[in-house]
Amino acid sequence: MNISIPDHYNEIVLVGPMGPKLPSELSSLPQIAIDGGESYSSSPFLWIGDGDSLKKDPATSEIIKLNSKKDQSDLAYALGRINSPSINKLHFWGFLGGRRDHELFNLGETSAFLLNKKQTEVIFYQQTLVPDLIFLSSGQWLFDFQGDFSLGTISGSEIQMEGEVDYPLNPVKRLLPLSSLGLSNRAHGKFLIKANAPFFLIRDYK
């Protein structure tokens, strides 16, 4: 069963069980509540989960109840059914923190979701609207900011980075999964990243 999202939307919010309450700046976008994310969402059009972190009955009429004995997480199930070609930005609220295994596997499932995508980004938030971590698909990405950041990949990727950064990757470098090659860099303005597989940025990690 694929998830139907209106064609005029290019962004969607997935709300997870770690909270806090979804801020108003994101509540106007279509929302999918993932299990206990029901408590922190605002008028989601769909609830998906096995109920193990659910604190109240889903308020939406669209429900996908999963068996608790399954071979993938609730988030992985949802990502596998988001096939709308118009969606190129996903906001993940409430998926960081808590159990370390859940958090790490959420990152792995996100990387796998982006493997077959082009110019698609997934933004993880924790307590505020300042992005905590940004996952990006293969493609060409232009950034413009000043501050510390680290660059990494889970699947492995060939990456070229040039512009106003302390440590460019030019010519192209092969980053192995979670390689420290991209650890602790600093941006001073505009820079360009070209990648042939998903990668992530962690900004202002201090």
Brief sketch in words of this structure:
The chain is built from three helices and twelve strands; from the N terminus they run E-H-E-E-E-H-E-H-E-E-E-E-E-E-E.
Could you explain how this protein is built, in words?
This protein is mainly beta and 206 residues long. Helices cover 12% and strands 37% of the residues. It contains three helices and twelve strands; from the N terminus they run βαβββαβαβββββββ. The protein has a twelve-stranded mixed beta sheet. Strand 1, helix 1 and strand 2 form a beta-alpha-beta unit. The longest helix has 15 residues, at 100-114. It is elongated and about 50 Å long. The N and C termini lie far apart (42 Å). The model has no long low-confidence stretch (mean pLDDT 92).
Question: How far is the N terminus from the C terminus?
Answer: 42 Å
Number of strands: 12
Percent range for β-strand residues: 35-45%
Overall pLDDT metric: 92
Query: Which residues sit in consecutive blocks of at least 5 with pLDDT less than 50?
Result: none
Which sequence of strands runs across the widest sheet? Answer: 4-3-2-1-5-6-7-12-8-11-9-10
Q: What's the quaternary structure here?
A: single chain
CA-based gyration radius: 17 Å
Number of helices: 3
Order of helices and strands: EHEEEHEHEEEEEEE
